[in-house]
Amino acid sequence: DAAGTGQLTLTEANCVDVIGTEQTISVAVEACACAAMDLTLNFDDNPDQTSWEILDANGLPVASGGAYTGAAGGSSTIETACLPDGCYELVVYDSGNDGMCPRRTSTVLTGINIASIGIGGVFNGIPRVGQNCGDYTLTDASGNVVATGGGRFGTSETNNFCIVGGVVQLQQSPDIYQRIDNDDFTNVNVYPNPAYEQITIEHNIQTDNDIQIAIMDVNGKMVQHLNATSNNSAISLNVNDLSSGIYFIQMIIDDKMITEKFVKK
């Protein structure tokens, strides 16, 4: 991983298997590079409740930020993390347990139109503006959206992603692949986990197009790829030839992407 000078040994061979004399040359070795990832945070009225971290495939934090006690409600900030190739989890936290949304109240005032915080209304005859929820967007070195979320997610929200050469993988077109909300799918399940010879992906995805599926190792390298139709609610993948370790399944459905993690024994 360190920069310096190394030795490369070469042996020339031609098309009729004539072997030349072994040659050794010096080569410059560059240090392991990383690519800038930008995390844009648009706060709700409580930036002091928001924090985040990016975890590597072993669950160790490689970047973090927050809580933003000095930020004004409704403001924005951009954080930058430099990440080598690999697979990661972006986890956004809210200490108030209401996600990036203002906390609602349940006070009932007799004879007055209710104006609960966050939903607008009328208070003593004066219109009250509903408070906006916050959100976040993570983009790669090419400006592609890697993960996005926010709203009322509770204590935390997690997005999985893999990058190679500083960009999110399976980028087949200029389209932006968005994080898939839980509302879009009622069931995406990968089993068995850990796996030995085969994994099955159960889903209820509805699309007229093929589903692109790739298996990525912890370094972000694609080790398996296929297209599947959405007609089959269960997709089986042979993982017998994979080495033991942690892998990520990336599924692209139209203009959206979802990532699931599994362990190969």
Features:
21 strands; globular; 5-stranded antiparallel sheet; mainly beta; 265 residues
Characterize the structure shown.
- By secondary structure, the protein is mainly β.
- Helix content is 0%, strand content 48%.
- It is built from no helices and 21 strands.
- It has strands at residues 4-10, 23-29, 35-42, 50-55, 61-66, 76-83, 86-94, 121-123, 126-128, 135-139, 145-150, 156-164, 167-168, 178-179, 188-191, 198-203, 211-217, 222-228, 234-238, 245-253, 256-264.
- Strands 5-4-7-12-13 form a five-stranded antiparallel β-sheet, with no helix packed on it. Strands 14-21-20-17-18 form a five-stranded mixed β-sheet, with no helix packed on it.
- The radius of gyration is 24 Å and the shape is globular.
- Residues 105-130 and 170-186 have low confidence and may be disordered.
Kindly, what is the distance between the CA atoms of the first and last residues, rounded to a whole number of angstroms? Answer: 28 Å
Summarize the biggest pleated sheet.
5 strands, antiparallel
Q: Report the radius of gyration as a whole number of Å.
A: 24 Å
Q: How helix-rich are the residues, as a percent range? A: under 10%
β-strand amount: over 45%
Structural class comes to mainly beta
| Total helical elements | 0
pLDDT averaged over residues: 76
Low-confidence stretches: 105-130, 170-186
